[in-house]
Amino acid sequence: MFPVLGLGHRFYTRSERHGVVHSARIIGAVLGFAMLGSIFLLPFSNVASQGGQSQSLFSIFKFFIDNISSVQINGVNNELVTAYLYQLGFIMILAGSFVGLFPIGSGVLSVIGLSFITIGPYEVTSGYSFAQSGFSSGFYVIWALAIVEVMLGIWVFLATREKEDSLARQMRANASDVAASARVCALCGANNPPNATICINCRAPLR
Ligand SMILES: [Zn+2]
């Protein structure tokens, strides 16, 4: 389903490469939709739940939006910073899920958003351990989708660059072919087409 990173572009001929870039973008968009669905439907973590039950990333975001003033009353504490990290992370992951056609943008946005949520608590809470996070399926699915988007993005970049490289090589080859076979007028120095018998500039006969 997914070509090996960095090698993918070597498995295809030049004419197929355009199609490859196109399908990578389509796959990116589909993964973006999957990410969007995961944000709303899959249980993400129990960070905002009183009963310890896992909630979707959207539900957590909404909880923090609805309750931010009651969280702010207590000043800057772990809960407030966690709320901010989740809000920031949610917005970046949501934005990432919408730009799947540009997999590198989608991947980078969602990886940064997820990093706020994943790494943030280590900065905020002393003695924090990963097990405390209460992350569940949505967390892992969205991380996996984000990483695949990054890989797709790199693949699009490599395939596009390869295409441009071969185009440039071809143009250089054509240019030197033309130069090699061109007939230079001995009288005025003008370049003439290979099959010319008289100079296109001064009409002198070419030998
Ligand atoms: Zn001439």
Structural summary, described in words:
This protein has 207 residues and is mainly alpha-helical. It has one domain. It contains five helices and four strands. The strands form two sheets. Strands 1-2 form a two-stranded antiparallel sheet. A two-stranded antiparallel sheet has the order 3-4. Helix 1 packs antiparallel against helix 5 and helix 3 runs antiparallel to helix 4. The longest helix is centred in the C-terminal third of the chain and has 45 residues. The protein starts with 13 loop residues before the first helix and ends in a 15-residue tail after the last strand. The N terminus is likely disordered. Bound molecules: zinc ion (ZN). The site of zinc ion has 8 residues, from loops.
Write the SSE topology:
Layout: H1 14-41, E1 43-45, E2 55-56, H2 57-72, H3 78-98, H4 103-124, H5 137-181, E3 183-184, E4 191-192
Antiparallel strand pairs: 1-2, 3-4
Helix pairs in contact: 1-3, 1-5, 2-3, 3-4, 4-5
Bound molecules: zinc ion (ZN).
